[in-house]
Design brief:
With 377 residues, this protein is an alpha/beta fold. Helix 4 crosses helix 5. The radius of gyration is 21 Å and the shape is globular. The chain folds into two domains: 201 residues, Rossmann fold; 159 residues, NAD(P)-binding Rossmann-like Domain (Rossmann fold), CATH 3.40.50. The chain has an eight-stranded mixed beta sheet.
Length: 377
């Protein structure tokens, strides 16, 4: 069993005590999560209040110790290969719903990325009266819920809160810190080079500032023209239109959708690093890149050189998955902002009947986790 981290207090436990959170013995959790030590602390705590039926770990993140800790508690943990993740979630969710029905239990989905809520609704809704709602941490999961033809359950999220914005900027710093560590291993200096950033949201702003702090000149491209104006006012170069105006040494996607597309890949200069700064592997058109690659060579554990048909060499970081998951990402005590807010959503979902829809934590409620965090830090 992993030891307690001595560098920060039991912030999440204190959150539960202040809320006077009570157990829900008639309810179970179905979890899809990154399995890092901070997530394990959250799951261990929530397991005391809402027993966990199944945890499905996302394979490109987490570590073996986290998985072992959960299994030692008797929690069933699966870690499918990423290409099989959606199918595994769909199969296991259906089995979990059937089990809860047979025991007259309610089921709550707790996830990142919206995979389970999509499986719940597509091709047909399978939740019946058993699945009472979902708890979501990411914007990606909210987007998935928004795109469903008809959302049949309430989805409560912490992806649209002010504390999430603070965490997002820290994710941006983590993206650049992880990339910088890899580039240092290669003996590559970022100082004085050009970077192209796709996306100037919460994470993108953190990426841009961190790149600038490391001596790079940053160009920003975003589908929202106002965001490009904001980036320009913040001191970065505006990138608009389809043609590149500068030749980047590094290109980072931080949109949550595909941003490094075929058109952009065709314009990137020789020896350009391609990086994802968002969840999953959506940012880069990987099939097109692989189709254009005639030779491949591993330069580093997390860097693969793709030599293209035209002779250009593009350096793919972490096979297109988030670079910040190659090492330590956002510090635990920052991530716990979101986990504390997630805990606050539990009684909102389970203590009252809530109509289907997408909900976030009210602004006024953020004062409690913020106050506890400041008191205990």
């Amino acid at each position: 069993m992993s030891k307690t981290n001595p560098f920060h207090p039991d912030f999440l436990g204190e959150m539960c005590r202040r809320l006077e959170l009570s157990p829900y013995p008639d309810t179970r959790q179905f979890v899809v999560q990154h399995l890092f030590p901070d997530t394990v602390r959250l799951l261990k705590l929530l397991h005391q209040y809402i027993p966990i039926d199944t945890v499905i770990g996302i394979s490109y993140s987490g570590n073996s110790q986290a998985i072992e800790d959960l299994r030692e508690m008797g929690i069933r943990v699966l870690t499918p290969n990423y290409p099989d993740l959606s199918e595994c979630v769909a199969t296991e969710l259906r089995a979990c719903i059937d089990k809860c029905k047979s025991h007259n239990q309610r089921l709550v989905i707790h996830e990142v990325g919206g995979i389970a809520i999509h499986a719940l609704h597509e091709p047909t809704f399978i939740g019946g009266d058993t699945v009472v709602g979902a708890l979501e941490i990411t914007k990606q999961g909210v987007w998935v819920a928004e795109q469903l033809s008809e959302l049949k359950i309430p989805q409560f999220n912490v992806a649209q809160t002010r504390l999430k914005e603070i965490e997002g900027k820290q994710v941006g710093e983590a993206v650049v810190a992880a990339l910088d560590s890899i580039l240092r291993d290669l003996g590559y200096s970022t100082v004085g080079r050009d970077a192209l950033l796709l996306g100037y949201g919460w994470v993108g702003k953190g990426v841009a500032q961190s790149l600038r702090n490391r001596g790079l000149s940053v160009s920003v491209k975003d589908v929202d023209t106002v965001s490009v104006v904001e980036a320009t006012v913040d001191g970065h170069h505006p990138a608009y239109g389809s043609a590149l105006k500068r030749a980047p040494a590094i290109v980072i996607g931080a949109t949550g959708r595909q941003s490094i597309d075929r058109q952009l890949l065709d314009q990137l200069p020789d020896r350009c690093f391609i990086v994802s700064g968002s969840s999953k592997n959506h940012e880069i058109n990987l099939p097109y890149l692989e189709g254009e690659t005639v030779a491949s060579r591993q330069l580093h554990e997390h860097v693969r050189q793709c030599t293209l048909r035209d002779g250009r060499r593009l350096f793919l970081i972490n096979e297109g998955y988030p670079v910040n998951f190659t090492g330590a990402s956002v510090p635990d005590e920052i991530v716990e902002f979101l986990f504390a807010e997630l805990i606050m959503l539990v009684p909102k979902l389970l203590d009252t009947a809530v109509a289907p829809g997408i909900y976030t934590l009210p602004v006024a409620d953020e004062a409690l986790p913020a106050s506890i965090w400041l008191e205990m830090r």
